[in-house]
Amino acid sequence: MSVRAVARIGAAVDGRGVTSLPVLESDGPLALRRTRAPHGPYARVTVVGAMSAPLGGDRLAIEARVEEDAWLAVDSAAATIALPGAGRVAEPATYEVELSVGERGRLRWLPEQLVSVHGSSLRMTTRVELAPTARLVLRDEQILGRHGESGGTFTGRLTVYRAGRPLIDQQTAYGPGAPGGWDGPAVLGGHRAVGQLLLVDPSFDDQCPRARLLGPTAVLTPLAGPAVLVTALAPDARLLRSTLDSAMNDVFGASVG
Q1: Distance (Å, rounded) from C-alpha 88 to C-alpha 118?
Q2: Distance, CA of 188 to CA of 134 (rounded, Å)
């Protein structure tokens, strides 16, 4: 039997000027835990998997709303594993992420990697709404297959709006059933780990980092707005994370706080 679950996070500034979590609702395999924040005034939530998911046919969703002046960091305790459906369930699983950040709010969305297991099929959508003065750091990583196996089918779409206008709308697809050429030299080039790091900061209106290569398989691209996108490929999860962490520290060090 497939699982349907929605988890919700709400961050707001309380009467003391501290970010609190008036909404923290877990459901099904999506268990939310308050954890100690390593980044100053941020409130921190860690997503803990309470059961194996997503399986084929599952419908999972997580929503996070950051109110005016609130600062929220969300991470996860372990990688998300997309698994084949039990029994005869062949339909894809879906995982929807809905994020919104109000004026002067800050959101660090830094989950662990998503592993697309052989035989699985997952459709993931991430939609973000940002106020004009909001700041965002968002990391998105996919690993095609566990050690020694080929990956499943993964389709992802990232859509970000700032002040009601589109900032980025990007769709990716890998694995069996994806459009031809996804593993060719123009896309993955044989790599099995792919990820991106998006940073939106109003200070980039005055001075935005220039487009440049960050290595043989990583590139920084300024967007049409106060934002930059780092896209990276790697042979494995460890090297992918190292590349994105280096971009975070070296390129975005003055802005991610």
Answers
A1: 16
A2: 32
For residue 50, the model assigns a pLDDT of 59
Residues 110-121 as b/e (b if ≥16 CB within 10 A, e otherwise) read bbbbbbbbbbbb
pLDDT of residue 86: 65
Phi, psi dihedral angles at 51 (to 5 degrees): -165, 170
Going by DSSP bridges, is the β-strand pair 4-13/19-25 parallel, antiparallel, or unpaired? antiparallel
Mean of per-residue pLDDT scores for the chain: 90
What DSSP line would sit under the chain, residue for residue? ---EEEEEEEEEE-TTS-EEEEEEE-BTTEEEEEE--SSTT-EEEEEEE-SS-PPTT-EEEEEEEE-TT-EEEEEESS-EEE-PPSTT--SPEEEEEEEEE-TT-EEEEE--PEEE-TT-EEEEEEEEEE-TT-EEEEEEEEEESSTTS---EEEEEEEEEETTEEEEEEEEEESTTSPTTTTSTTTTTT-SEEEEEEEE-GGGGT--PPPEEEETTEEEEE-SSSEEEEEEEESSHHHHHHHHHHIIIIISTTT--
Rounded CA-CA distance 230/221 in Å is 6
Q: Is the pLDDT of residue 239 over 70?
A: yes
Pairing relationship of beta strands 80-82 and 106-110 according to DSSP bridges:
unpaired
